[in-house]
Amino acid sequence: MIRVNDSTFNERVLAWFDRHGRKDLPWQQDKSPYRVWISETMLQQTQVATVIPYFNAFVDRFPSVEALANASIDEVLRHWSGLGYYARARNLHKAALIIAGQGSFPDTLEELQQLPGIGLSTAGAIMSIAYGRSHPILDGNVRRVLARYRAVPGWPGEAKVNRRLWELSRALTPEQRAADYTQAIMDLGATVCTRSRPSCGACPVNADCLAFGTGRVNDFPAPKPAKALPVKQRTFLLLTDRHRQVFLEKRPPAGIWGGLWCLPEFENPDQALGWCLDRHIPVVGRYAMDRRRHTFSHFHLDFTPLVILTDGITGGVGETGSPIWHPLEAIARLGLPAPINLLLKQYQNHEDKHGKTD
DNA sequence: AAAGCGTGGAG
DNA sequence: TCTCCAAGCTT
């Protein structure tokens, strides 16, 4: 157990929060467990500004656990498309079905943590923000504040460092004003104790911040050890007909872009072409669009779009998932991975300008 | 323990 | 254009 010799840490953080904290974010208006749960899930590894429009649209369409449980996974994913980490949406839907079956929203840390997509930090955030119960959290903001405040060495991705930061968070979290404190410590990290160029002069705890006191603010937390990202080569088949319909298939439920509608994916253009020939798809024209590189968290994707024009296809060609022909103009409403959406928009612009090439 | 999972902002 | 990483969780 870590001893806290500075018993006023939380008091100073809370006093700062009263004057400078954010209190008008959409999910801070009606802090029901459901809304807090949705917002905390969306905010996992995702910045506030990105989340705001998604949160508003999501709770507008799914205003309650029941509404979410009664929706189809397709519609839930559609509202998530562009936000990334789609397992979060699949887990939300699964958890909503569980909660709806239980009849009431869970109100203990243990129950919350058993739901898919809710880990220790998200459970702590829901407990404190929605129920006003004192529970620590450890997100990126808190991790950074605490690593600097106590000059905790090492990369937080290491289990040992992570455990120490959790201990610190636990020790510093007060019994009183639990909801405000959770908001406060996150706001402090997000607006004052920022990753680069922190405003230490405006920090309520700079007087006993070990990193600030020793001029080593930039040394904490230690950066993740750099690793060269592997490069994957992939071809995406843009199979389209004279009616401006595009062939799409649903991706497998797990893995990247799981459950989303997408262009068929191949290792190279030859395989894409072979796939068409195997299915006796009449190829009346083809060309490659500009190749591009897309960077993900764990690999680079060298991305080759292959446009194939056909005619007379009515469906039933795919095998990975249920295939559909979909109007190009209405693609955006279907909810596709962001890079695929972008590619289709570029193709549509090109077609609008030059017309069909066949 | 370590890897997989997205997207966009910031430098 | 490239790297780093953000209100993390799961396997």
Automatic annotation (TrEMBL):
The record's function comment reads: Adenine glycosylase active on G-A mispairs. MutY also corrects error-prone DNA synthesis past GO lesions which are due to the oxidatively damaged form of guanine: 7,8-dihydro-8-oxoguanine (8-oxo-dGTP).
Question: What domain of life?
Answer: Bacteria
SMART domains on file: ENDO3c (SM00478), FES (SM00525)
Give the Gene Ontology MF terms in alphabetical order.
4 iron, 4 sulfur cluster binding; 8-oxo-7,8-dihydroguanine DNA N-glycosylase activity; adenine/guanine mispair binding; metal ion binding; oxidized purine DNA binding; purine-specific mismatch base pair DNA N-glycosylase activity
Q: What class of enzyme is it?
A: hydrolase
Tell me if Cell inner membrane is a UniProt keyword of this record: no
> Which protein family is it in?
Belongs to the Nth/MutY family.
User: Which keywords annotate this record?
Assistant: 4Fe-4S, DNA damage, DNA repair, Glycosidase, Hydrolase, Iron, Iron-sulfur, Metal-binding
Could you tell me what this protein is called? Adenine DNA glycosylase
Question: PANTHER family per the record?
Answer: ADENINE DNA GLYCOSYLASE
Residues in domain HhH-GPD? 42-191
Q: Which InterPro entries match?
A: A/G_AdeGlyc_MutY (IPR005760), DNA_glycosylase (IPR011257), Endonuclease-III-like_CS2 (IPR004036), Endonuclease3_FeS-loop_motif (IPR003651), HhH-GPD_domain (IPR003265), HhH_base_excis_C (IPR023170), HhH_motif (IPR000445), MIG/MutY (IPR044298)
NCBIfam families assigned to the protein according to its UniProt record, in alphabetical order: mutY (TIGR01084), PRK10880.1 (NF008132)
Question: What is the organism of origin for this protein?
Answer: Methylomicrobium album BG8
Q: Which reaction does it catalyse?
A: Hydrolyzes free adenine bases from 7,8-dihydro-8-oxoguanine:adenine mismatched double-stranded DNA, leaving an apurinic site
Q: Which GO terms describe its biological process?
A: base-excision repair; mismatch repair
Explain how, and how many, cofactor molecules are bound. Binds 1 [4Fe-4S] cluster.
Record flagged with keyword Cell membrane: no
Q: What is its EC number?
A: 3.2.2.31
Which cofactors are reported in the record for this sequence? [4Fe-4S] cluster
